[in-house]
Amino acid sequence: MKSRLAATGVLVLAAWALPYGLGGYTVHVVNIALIYALLAIGMGLAMGVSGQINLAQVAFFGVGAYAVAILTTHYGHGFWFSALLAVLATVVVGLFVGVPALRMQSHYLGIVTLGLALGFINWITNADITGGADGISGIPVPALPGVDLSSEYLYYYLEALVFGLALLFGLFVVHTSLGRRLRAMRDDALAAGAMGAEIPFLRMTAFLLASLYGGLAGVLYAGLIRYVAPETFSIANMFILLAMVIIGGRRSLVGCVVGAIGLTMVREWLSDFSTYAQLGYGVVVVLMVVFAPTGLAGVPARLRTLYERRRRAQQSSRAELRPFIPYEVEDRSARDGVLLSVEGVTQQFRGLRALDEVTLTVRKGEIRGVVGPNGSGKTTLFNVISGFYRATAGTVGFAGSDTTTARPYTLSLAGLARTFQNLRLFGQLTVRENVLVALDRTRTHTIWQYALWQPGVLTRERRLRAQADDILRRYGLADFAEADPSSLPYGIQRRIEIARAMAARPRLLLLDEPAAGLNGGEVQQLIRIVRSIRDSGTTVILIEHNMGLVMSLCEKVTVLSSGRVIAEGTPQEVVSAPEVIEAYLGDSDLAELDLDTPPSAARPDRAKEATP
Amino acid sequence: MQDTLQTLVSGLSLGAVYALVAMGFSLVYRTMGLVNFAHADIAMIGAYAASTFYLTSHLPFAVAMGLAIVITGAIGLVIERVLRPLENKDFDLMLIGTIGFGIVLQALAIIIWGTTGRAVPSPLDSAPLDVLGIRIRTYDLLVMAVAALAVVALAFFLSRTKRGAAMQAVAMDHEAATAVGIDVGRSNALAFAIGAGLAALAGGLVGPMLYVDASLGGALGIKGFAAAMLGGFGSIHGAVVGGIAIGVLDSYAAGHFQGYSVLVTFLVFTIAIMIRPMGIFGERTVSRA
Question: Which CATH number applies to A332-608?
Answer without folding.
Answer: 3.40.50.300
